[in-house]
Design goal:
Layout lengths: L2 E8 L3 H8 L9 H5 L2 H10 L3 E6 L14 E4 L3 E4 L12 E2 L2 H13 L5 E3 L3 E2 L1 H10 L9 E7 L9 H17 L5 E7 L16 H10 L12 H8 L6 H9 L4 E13 L2 E11 L5
Parallel strand pairs: 1-9, 2-8, 2-9, 3-6, 4-7
Antiparallel strand pairs: 1-11, 3-8, 4-5, 10-11
Helix pairs in contact: 1-5, 4-6, 6-9
Length: about 280
């Protein structure tokens, strides 16, 4: 049987990719953020997952304001990085796991979700940056990718509870998969930030720390806010916390926080990394 070993939750700011490309990991401005990935590297090296299920938001690459699905799941054999002109080159392809993708799609539809299924899909910095952070310098990525895109751009947005329940449905699908893969879940984006308007540069450390404090131990605490309240609290782009909430929902076992890191600011964004372990006890 497959095993969901845990989750990695991290910011996906494009500037992080630029810092990687320029070798600035030890620069004083960047070092506190990159140091937060040491426990993640140790965990991934020890556990050696085979698949990464990534909850993220597309930034106009596959979907735009005229066609914006609430949820979309990739079912391709391969994904390539084709970002929106940030000047960051991630040339390595991301191998897909088409059979598991279709299993997830079928199971979440049974749970009354209606995702868009994408048999051809490209990915942007919301996937590329976390992969580069998790597996730095890898000539080939050691995991197969299953991307799950959530609308955090075009209103009406899905509620936090709806995203959490989507994650739970994905988690049930992973538990019922008959393969023997180890699976890691990624939630990417945020934390609080706003890039435009009168509140450009908005960061709410109190809300960020509330999310970090409750992600492992009480994820339902994150569901108390209406999505518009989250926009007010975290900023118009800080609503990417929905990706974290969905990813947390996919962890059904005994969840324990192994590491948490918070650094402000990175490119006008509150950046964070959280590592959660997921252990499921199987009855004899």
């Amino acid at each position: 049987m497959s095993e969901v070993i845990g989750g990695v939750f991290t910011s996906h700011v494009p500037a992080i990719g630029s810092a990687i490309a320029r070798g600035l990991q030890q620069d004083p401005y960047w070092k506190p953020f990159f140091d937060g990935f040491d426990p993640v590297h140790e965990f991934l090296h020890r556990e050696k997952p085979d698949v990464a299920v990534v909850f993220y938001n597309d930034h106009g690459l596959n979907f735009f304001l005229d066609k914006m699905p609430t949820f979309a799941i990739g079912a391709a054999t391969e994904y390539r990085h084709e970002d929106e002109g940030w000047g960051i080159s991630f040339p390595r392809p991301y191998p897909g796991h088409q059979a598991l993708s279709w299993h997830i799609i079928e199971e979440v539809v049974k749970s009354d979700f209606d995702p868009v299924t994408c048999q051809a899909m490209t990915v942007d910095h919301a996937v590329a940056v976390p992969f580069e952070l998790a597996w730095p310098g890898a000539e080939e990525f050691p995991v197969k990718l299953i991307p799950i895109a959530i609308n955090t751009v075009q209103h009406p947005l899905p509620s936090a509870r709806r995203c959490y329940n989507l994650g739970k449905a994905v988690g049930r699908a992973l538990e019922s998969w008959q393969g023997d893969e180890k699976i890691v879940v990624l939630g990417t984006g945020g934390l609080s930030h706003q890039l435009e308007g009168g509140r450009a540069g908005h960061i709410n450390s109190d809300y960020d720390r509330f999310c970090l404090r409750n992600l492992a131990r009480d994820p339902e605490a994150l569901l108390q806010h209406d999505v518009l309240d989250i926009v007010e609290l975290a900023g118009s782009q800080g609503v990417e916390i929905l990706n974290w909430i969905a990813a947390r929902g996919a962890l059904h076992g005994s969840v324990r926080e192994l590491a948490s890191n918070y650094h402000v600011p990175i490119s006008n964004t509150a950046a964070a990394t959280v590592l959660l372990e997921n252990r499921v006890t199987v009855s004899a």
